[in-house]
Task: structure prediction
Amino acid sequence: MTDPAQNEPRRKGFFATMRSSFLTGLVVVLPIGLTIYLIWSVIGWIDSWVLPFVPASYQPDALFKFYFGPDTVLNVRGVGVVVFLVFTMLVGWLAKGLIGRSMLVYSEKLVDRMPVVRSIYNGLKQIAETVFAQSETNFEKACLIEYPRPGIWAIGFVSTKAKGEIAQKFSHDVRMLSVFVPTTPNPTSGFLLYVPMQDVHMLDMKIEDAAKLIISAGLVYPPSKPAQAPTEPEGVAD
Result:
């Protein structure tokens, strides 16, 4: 006969329990702590960059000493962020007007005459327009395609149908889609592929969920949805 005590689950020791509790707490505390630290650091960096342009009499320290007494010492973060937001919105409002657009065109013509400055400015402008432009030009759907060879599938983002010279290189019966296949864990780099529409399998998950799946290397999955019959790809701009 076997000893019943042998079938009982082995109890964890004190140090094993402490280690398990520490790792569980670390999973909870680390994302919160890093998020607070990054936000606090970014706010401090913006303040250090913006506040030197604010007159000395309007600095936070000077205002607190003026209203609450000369002995008041209070370190306030975020004033530079507020100044930056107000200034940026004011510039954007002016740039939408006729005078602002005229000044912007004149300034860009002036920059185009400077060889080194022109290259730096145009590169930064393209990046800013790509990231922050308020337009409808963005990824339409997440999808699956066979890449880099048949039988291996990769997540991609459909942008548009092939246009212009690229579309003319294919038969009229073949509709091609431009698909961006990002790399893991850095989705800002990747490959631009032109894939026949019938070979693109559209996903129901949102673009954000697909990006999380890529960044996490397949560890963070979006909640599953009921299976649906395959349909014609929708939302792809002509």
Remarks:
- Residues 2 and 8 are 12 Å apart (CA to CA).
- The longest helix spans residues 14-50.
